[in-house]
Amino acid sequence: MVRELTTDIRDIRLVVLDMAGTTVADGGLVERAFEAAAAELGVEPGSPDHAEKLDYVRATMGESKISVFRHLFGAEELAQRANTAFERAYGDLVDAGLIAPVPGAREAIEELAGSGRTVVLTTGFARVTQDAVLAALGWRDLVPLTLCPADAGGRGRPFPDMVLEAFVRTKAAEDVRQVAVVGDTSYDVLSGVRAGAGLVAGVRTGAHADDAFRAAGATHVLDSVAQLPALLTGAR
């Protein structure tokens, strides 16, 4: 069941948006980069072990990538090797021009900023990959703050740390209930719920679907982040 909204929607002052799958359409690049990481560690393509690990990657979209690899490979050295290979492969795919904004995402961000709200972009990727994505899209100066797990003490989603870091750093809101968190995975939603955000929305442009959003406690489910400005003005 969708969680009850805890604030007047027009009072939202800070909007924390996920990147891949929410504002950025990456066309399955996470899975392609995982293939490279798996190969680096000797996981045989087509094997039951490969299939099991890929299923876990799909199920945990939105979680910090190093946390995913720690679960998959156990030993810290192996997890770090896999994560390095993943980030390198994803960066190469980005450099090859294989990402694009979700339709209407940039316009939504600009409209939110134009209405006096502060927008922060977050990711489960490492900083080097986040910066590569921002550069490829021409988004380096689009928002005043971007965060990756390392910027918030090392814990990514589903922990609330990046949301709370955005709240503390921007000082855009007086109360966490004036924060909106939007993402395409249940991990995005859960991080917003745990942070106490007043509005927590799942979007249907990425990894997870309505049931997962509702189970995680979303207040709203949207077809796309492009619908967010109208929602916050009460037009939807």
Biggest sheet: strands side by side, in what order? 5-4-1-6-7-8
Number of discrete helical segments: 10
The total count of strands amounts to 8
CATH topology of the largest domain: Rossmann fold
The CATH superfamily of the largest domain is: HAD superfamily/HAD-like
Which sheet architecture does the biggest sheet show? 6 strands, parallel
- Taking pLDDT < 50 over at least 5 consecutive residues as the criterion, the unreliable ranges are none
- Rg from C-alpha positions? 17 Å
For this structure, the quaternary state is single chain
Number of spatially distinct domains = 2
Instruction: Characterize the overall form.
Output: globular
Order of H and E elements: EEHHHHEHEHEHEHEHEH
Tell me the fraction of residues in β-strands, as a range.
5-15%
Q: Terminal Cα separation, in Å?
A: 20 Å
**Would you tell me the overall average pLDDT?**
90
The CATH class name of the largest domain reads Alpha Beta
Protein name: Haloacid dehalogenase
GO molecular function: phosphoglycolate phosphatase activity
InterPro entries: HAD-like_hydrolase_sf, HAD-like_sf, HAD_sf
GO cellular component, one term: cytosol
